[in-house]
């Protein structure tokens, strides 16, 4: 896998993803992305792809999303071991992107954790923050990067662990 997914570190290629599902290069042509995309396509067994075709670009992005999620799920068990050690001596804030990762953490840590993710009410969000800040038995704040990444006071911990990063580097 390492040989197939090897990337060219001399190229600085960025893409902008549009709401219509399209993608455009913001720092170079699709050709610069071509070698990496071809290697990914070979790894996935989908053959040659025409990166000028929006449908095929969307297909590759779907594969990348799937790989990203599967990679995150593979890290959960080891991450839980690390968190068990950390919470022995201090509280910690943990961020992840995928709901399945968040749910696995909540299932594991139960009453020792609180969680803020999309879809919860303002009252639930406020209560989760209050419990983390005030209840010594609540050792872990588990948050979705997007739903809990800004606007919360979590000073009960001075440590943050990102189990996953968002697609957008500014989040």
Average predicted confidence as pLDDT? 77
Kindly, what is the distance between the CA atoms of the first and last residues, rounded to a whole number of angstroms?
29 Å
Shape: elongated
Strand order in space, largest sheet: 4-5-3-6
Number of strands: 6
Q: Please trace the helix and strand order, writing H or E for each element.
A: EEHHEHEHEHE
Fraction in beta strands: 5-15%
Count of helical segments? 5
Radius of gyration: 19 Å
The percent range for helix content is 40-55%
The description of the largest β-sheet is: 4 strands, parallel
Low-confidence stretches: 1-31
Name the structural class.
Answer: alpha/beta
Keywords:
5 helices; disordered N terminus; 171 residues; 4-stranded parallel sheet
Structure overview:
The protein starts with 14 loop residues before the first strand and ends in a 9-residue tail after the last strand. The longest helix is centred in the middle third of the chain and has 33 residues, at 54-86. The model is unreliable at 1-31 (pLDDT under 50). Helix content is 44%, strand content 13%. The chain contains five helices and six strands, in the order ββααβαβαβαβ. Helix 2 packs parallel to helix 3 (99-109). The protein is of the alpha/beta class and 171 residues long. It has helices at 30-44, 54-86, 99-109, 122-134, 145-148, and strands at 15-17, 23-25, 92-96, 113-116, 140-144, 160-162. The radius of gyration is 19 Å and the shape is elongated. The strands form two sheets. A four-stranded parallel beta sheet has the order 4-5-3-6. Strands 1-2 form a two-stranded antiparallel ribbon.
